[in-house]
Specification:
The structure holds two protein chains of two kinds. Helix content of chain A is about 75%, strand content about 0%. Chain A is mainly α. The radius of gyration of chain A is 20 Å and the shape is globular. Classes of the chains: A mainly alpha, B mainly alpha. The interface of A and B includes residues 136, 144, 147 and 179 of A.
């Protein structure tokens, strides 16, 4: 086992992906099936929210992954800018559509839950607004990738956009917090106090928490599997293009 | 740098430079709002700071692709990149020129448009202050967007999409400052935040703009 940078070699990366993709995908399937079935059929209805509470098993993991996907793109973008590993740039490219899908899932499930609970599909609440802004960032990022022909230029520009965008995303988060006090509840799934037992505020009950945890693990694995698969596809696409170009030259 | 600034200003003021475009757009927004929401003065007073900020932002957005596109097309930008002046300075001057041709007229015209929208008397000072502080940030962020999309055939729409989320914090704090000023509330928090954003982007973003411009000129 050498340095982690060995996997920056596309061939090595593809081989590793081939080895790990099936187990990770299996793990994601198992976790999602267990977590969702457990969550939907074997947990009690909430005494105030009724059955609507069960959308939490999609909403929370999707929202979590929407942010984590952007974070992953930020890290891979930095790696691309510093070390110029193509796999890193392609991984960022591969993650963006998954991230935007997660954002949309979080927004839609939130709206479906919000309609009966808050009495509205949409409110300009800080969290909702932040997610809408995140959605716009994803759209801009993907559009920029699509708009530029030269792959290296596209990787450079999108990387810088990702980094600058991250700064502005954090800034927007605080700005909208300041701008409007929200309806959305605070972080109630995992809190430092909840683990040490010093937390006296309300928190998601364990009955709901364990299936939720399984769902979150499932979403993480699903994200990893999709990113690996899509990155490998991008590598193959790149290689196909190179081979075609070479053939045309010959 | 001074020569470059002078050149950009002259180009903007001369025919076809699009100098009046932003201000005309601003006027259109402000005049059309009462027609669309009704002439009720209480309502107009309430929404005036927000509408004025939105109008200024859109007017700014309208002229962004002119910052670099024309110089890109005729190759001037390549010459600037090879000139002894660092590219960071070039984009800063370009942003400054954009601000002087778009931002400053907006700041000057805003009180006049405030009268049209029935802005309360105590709001004028803070409206002007908020725009004077906020529009430089809009120009600098816009220059970054223009540098990102300069090599594209039809970058205008993409530019708007990229810039839209980047403008959110500036718009929130700027409009909040103008609103609080108009309603006579304490203004220090949004004032400091807006100033922080503005000076922060002026200090840092030109480096990112120059970086992407170098990539595009490669």
């Amino acid at each position: 086992m050498g340095s982690i940078w060995e996997y920056a070699n596309p061939v090595k990366f593809s081989q590793t992906v081939s080895r790990f993709l099936a187990p990770v995908a299996m793990g994601a399937t198992v976790c999602l099936v267990i977590g969702l079935v457990w969550g939907f059929f074997f947990t009690p209805d909430d005494f105030r929210q009724g059955a609507t509470v069960k959308i939490i098993y999609l909403h929370v993991p999707a929202a979590l992954m929407a942010i984590n996907a952007w974070f992953m793109m930020l890290v891979t973008s930095l790696i691309w800018l510093v070390r110029r590993h193509h796999v890193s740039a392609l991984a960022a490219k591969a993650a963006a559509p998954i991230g935007v899908t997660m954002t949309v899932i979080a927004l839609i499930t939130g709206a479906i839950w919000g309609q009966p609970m808050w009495g509205t599909w949409w409110a300009w609440d800080p969290r909702l607004t932040s997610f809408l802004i995140l959605f716009l960032f994803y759209l801009g990022y993907i559009a920029l990738w699509e708009a530029i022909d030269d792959p290296d230029t596209a990787a450079d520009l999108t990387s810088v956009l990702c980094i600058v965008g991250s700064v502005f995303a954090v800034l927007s988060r605080y700005a909208v917090n300041f701008w409007n006090q929200g309806l959305h509840q605070g972080a109630s799934v995992m809190r430092a106090g909840a683990i040490t037992g010093t937390d006296t505020e309300e928190k998601v009950s364990n009955v709901f928490f364990y299936p939720l945890l399984v769902c979150i693990i499932g979403f993480v694995l699903l994200f990893v599997a999709l990113v690996l698969l899509r990155t490998r596809t991008e590598i193959h696409k790149r290689r196909t293009r190179a081979l075609l170009a070479r053939e045309r030259m010959a | 740098m001074r020569a470059l600034l002078k050149r950009d200003l002259i180009l903007a003021f001369r025919a076809g430079g699009g100098f009046g475009l932003g201000i005309a757009f601003f006027l259109i927004v402000v005049v059309l709002v009462p027609f669309s929401v009704g002439p009720e003065s209480g309502l107009l007073t309430k929404i005036a700071p927000g509408v004025l900020w939105l109008g200024a932002l859109l007017a700014c957005l309208l002229s962004l692709d002119r910052i670099l596109a024309l110089d890109w097309e005729d190759g001037t930008l390549d010459l600037m990149a090879t000139a002894p002046l660092p590219l960071e300075a070039v984009v800063t001057v370009k942003a400054l020129a954009h601000w002087m041709t778009t931002g400053v007229p907006l700041v000057v015209a805003a009180p006049l448009f405030g009268v049209l929208l029935n802005l309360p008397p105590q709001g004028f000072v803070w409206l002007v202050v908020s725009l004077a502080l906020g529009t430089p940030a809009l120009s600098v962020i816009g220059t970054f967007g223009a540098a990102l999309t300069v090599g594209l055939k039809r970058g205008g729409l993409l530019l708007s999409l990229l810039i839209l989320p980047l403008y959110v914090p500036t718009l929130i704090f700027g409009a909040e400052l103008a609103r609080r000023g108009a309603e006579g509330q304490a203004v220090s928090t949004p004032l400091l935040m807006l100033a922080g954003i503005s000076f922060g982007v002026i200090a840092l973003l030109p480096f990112a703009s120059a970086l992407v411009l170098r990539v595009n000129l490669r």
